[in-house]
Design brief:
This is SCY1-like protein 2 B. By secondary structure, the protein is α+β, with helices and mostly antiparallel strands. Helix content is 44%, strand content 7%. It has 32 helices and ten strands. The longest helix is centred in the C-terminal third of the chain and has 26 residues. The chain is elongated.
Length: 797
């Protein structure tokens, strides 16, 4: 038997040199003759606990009991029993004497008595934590007694240890043995190592060594007595000195006192079964126990129960002991979210608990779970992440955001839900500063260019606001290429007044980005038009913007005259624009129904890049007045355009549409116009261009010339370029001016038809009407009055 036990102990290790763990500092207390040390793994440095037991003789009874404890600990598994990791037995020789040491490696734990002193809980919080711990130990003892028919033999304060998550675990299995009550012929001790148990912890039948009475008693009789000793030591705050002290019930809670007295009954057969102790609803039902119990059986709950529980959890967590919430409840919550058993409202509770951690602990305990959640397919989880991104966004590194978070968030830009598109857009205010320049220019700006023509006016407005806020993080070349086009060509021409106002404010906030030429030729002409806008707020902002940009030009002019050469309209650095403007609109789905707005031109209806380039070349030869006509557009110009198609993705964050996914590897964004080779015009187009260049005979009426200072070709080019929201609108100043045309007074529809100057003359003949035959579209002839002659053929008779 000894050789078998020795083989079991030595089965997982051959000696101390092969022990894959480092032994650290000891704890001040441990059960029996064991020593308890802190330890770490040599492989990954993870913490462990190492228990050692030494003896000078291989036949020492303590070593034999220790080997029994190792065997039992390896074979018995339960959530509330100490987890076994490794064991070995080492024999060392010092001269003529030998020393045998048993090593047991377990999960990291510390003695319960030390943990209670460390926590320092008082009053109600202490009682709630004790109820949680007693509930866990009672389940372990009930498992041994009722399910395994084993007797622990020494349940007490010293046999309980606590994990880093504040769970109580039962250990000290040296005395543990099978209950052989059915063996009537047995007469020896049922517990061979019962001599290791202190007399104060033994029930009267063990003190008398009445094994016949013990075998006739129920399996839980001895351990029920031990549970009573544990309850006394917990609430008295001291170790049990003698059996008579158990009569002192001053510190025992009133709801637990009846069960405590039944556990310590003098008659073994009348002692309370440990499983019955768990049914004490009055004592074990408190907020802490109920919360932990709900989390333990979370997979068995339905969605309604989960949703209700997690919505109440933030308020409940504030009433629980802070140390227990952070070390016990927080890991449970993070694990349930990571593996998909928790509902979306659990994220709110997780972030609230995480706010009580230090920055370092938050990055270790909470942030990894949040990063994994961005890959979740649960739309509710994604919405919750975007709504709370400001609470954890600053804690994420740029590399994590750029590589692990943004690819999942970006799919929301093309989601079919306007609410999710808006949340994705707003989240970029926190995430954009952590993105690389390649991601900003090659991906984010492409998505924003699509959102500026979104069907929802709130999204278009907030896109402009976001661009103004993140302008600081764009490189200089991208700012030059994108901002003016985004703010003037799109934002200032939006049919939604707040969108136009946002474009004006964004231009003012990024005013140091632009030089004098850009201000004078591209910004001011577009803003001045809005001084007569229908919306009073837009007009007010337009006047303020005009004054601001004129002041910039005036200051630069004065500096130039003063001899400060090299000073331009804008500095190289942009002021901090994080507080540019708040979001213009609230959540779209909270409004009950989508906002009504005039449809914007879709990207499919916009002219091609080649035609835009051609129009830009044509307008370069016109008069300066063309610029003004180019920007003077009424809101009615947009109403004739079809609304852009909405994305069609239906799962998760949504699929990337409109060619975004194919162009992510490009370094170009959606607002600039690259120079293209002008294609050779078709013969019909060549004739029109030639007609544009030919002078038109002036009208005999001089008044027509004064009232029409522009030619039709100029308006046609401006109209075409105006429809191209992707192209750059900056055109060089014309070198020459074309001669004004004197049109005939009879041509009264020039304002509506810019091609009237070169239109073909109206036809001189009238088209013949269709004959009223027997076709499907022919109307029946009206009946004639009076007698009519009917021609019948002979065949009809």
């Amino acid at each position: 038997m000894f050789q078998f036990l020795k083989g079991v102990v030595a089965g997982s290790g051959t000696g101390l040199k092969d022990l894959p763990y480092n032994i650290g500092d000891p704890y001040p207390s441990a059960w029996g003759s064991w020593n308890h040390f802190r330890g770490t793994s040599k492989d990954d440095g993870s913490p462990v606990s190492i228990f050692t037991l030494s003896g000078n003789n291989a036949q020492d009874g303590h070593l034999a009991a220790g080997r029994n404890g190792v065997k039992r600990l390896r074979t018995v598994r339960h959530p509330n029993i100490l987890s076994f990791l490794h064991s070995t037995e080492v024999e060392t020789h010092e001269g003529s004497t030998s020393k045998v040491t048993i090593y047991i490696v377990t999960e990291p734990v510390m003695p319960l008595s030390d943990k209670i002193k460390e926590l320092g809980l008082k009053a109600t919080q202490r009682d709630e934590y004790f109820a949680l711990g007693l509930h866990q130990i009672t389940k372990a003892v009930s498992f041994l007694n009722n399910d395994c028919k084993l007797v622990h033999g020494n349940v007490c304060l010293a046999s309980v240890v606590v994990t880093p998550t504040l769970d109580w675990k039962l250990h000290a299995f040296d005395v543990l043995s099978e209950f052989d009550g059915s063996n009537g012929s047995a007469s020896g001790p049922m517990l061979p190592y019962e001599w290791l148990v202190g007399t104060q912890y033994k029930p009267m039948e063990m003190v008398k060594s009445d094994w016949v009475a013990i075998r006739k008693s129920p399996p839980w009789a001895i351990d029920s007595w031990g549970l009573g000793c544990l309850i006394y030591e917990l609430f008295s705050g001291s170790k049990l000195g003698k059996t008579e002290e158990l009569r002192n019930t001053v510190g025992i809670p009133k709801s637990l006192l009846p069960d405590y007295q039944r556990l310590l009954s003098s008659m073994p057969s009348r002692r309370l079964n440990t499983s019955k102790l768990l049914e004490n609803g009055e004592y074990f039902q408190n907020k802490l126990v109920d919360t932990i119990h709900f989390m333990d059986i979370l997979n068995l709950k339905d969605s309604v129960e989960k949703d209700t529980f997690f919505r109440k959890l933030p308020n409940i967590a504030e009433q629980l002991p802070r140390e227990i919430v952070l070390k016990k409840l927080l890991p449970l919550l993070a694990s349930s979210l990571e593996f998909g058993s928790a509902a979306a409202p659990a994220l709110t509770a997780l972030l609230k608990m995480g706010s009580w951690l230090s920055t370092e602990d938050f990055s270790v305990k909470v942030l990894p779970t949040i990063v994994k959640l961005f890959a979740s397919n649960d739309r509710a989880i994604r919405v919750s992440l975007l709504q709370h991104v400001d609470q954890f966004g600053e804690s994420m590194s740029g590399q994590i955001v750029d590589e692990q978070v943004y690819p999942h968030v970006a799919t929301g830009f093309a989601d079919t839900s306007a609410f999710l598109r808006e949340l994705t857009l707003k989240s970029m205010l926190v995430l954009a500063p952590k993105l690389s320049q390649r991601t900003l220019s090659g991906s984010l700006l492409k998505y924003l260019s699509k959102l500026q023509v979104d069907e929802e006016p709130a999204i278009r407005t907030n896109t402009t606001i976001l661009l103004g806020n993140i302008a600081t993080y764009l490189n200089e070349g991208t700012r030059k290429r994108v901002l003016i086009n985004a703010f003037t060509v799109r934002a200032l021409r939006d049919t939604f007044p707040p969108a136009r106002g946002a474009g004006i404010v964004a231009l003012c906030a990024t005013s140091t980005t632009y030089d004098d030429t850009e201000i004078a030729t591209r910004i001011l002409p577009n803003i001045v038009v809005l001084t007569i806008d229908q919306d009073s707020d837009v007009r007010s902002k337009a006047f303020q913007a005009v004054e601001q940009f004129l002041q910039i030009l005036k200051q630069n002019y004065e500096k130039t005259n003063a001899g400060e050469a090299g000073v331009t309209g804008g500095a190289s650095a942009i002021p901090e624009t994080a507080g540019l403007i708040g979001w213009a609109m609230s959540s779209l789905t909270l409004k009950g129904k989508p906002l009504e707005q005039a449809p914007l031109p879709s990207s499919s209806s916009a002219p091609s890049l080649a035609s835009a380039a051609s129009n830009a070349v044509t307008t370069a030869t016109e008069t300066p007045s063309v610029k003004a006509s180019h920007h003077t557009r009424s809101n009615s110009d947009f109403t004739d355009q079809p609304a852009p198609p909405s994305p069609t993705s239906t799962d998760g964050w949504g699929d990337v549409e409109n060619g975004i996914s194919e162009g992510l590897d490009s370094d170009k964004d959606g607002w600039d116009l690259e120079p293209l080779d002008e294609p050779k015009p078709s013969p019909a187009l060549a004739n029109i261009q030639a007609a544009q260049k030919r002078p038109v005979s002036q009208s005999s009426r001089p008044g027509a010339t004064s009232s029409r200072p522009k030619i039709g070709t100029t308006k046609a080019a401006a109209k075409t370029e105006d429809d191209d929201l992707w192209g750059s609108i900056a055109a060089p100043l014309p070198a020459t001016t074309s001669r004004p045309l004197n049109l005939k007074k009879s041509v009264q529809s020039d304002d509506e038809d810019p091609w009237a100057a070169i239109a073909a003359p109206p036809p001189t003949t009238r088209a013949k009407p269709l004959s009223s035959g027997r076709g499907r579209g022919a109307k029946p002839a009206a009946p004639k009055l009076g007698a009519q002659r009917i021609n019948r053929t002979s065949s009809g008779m």
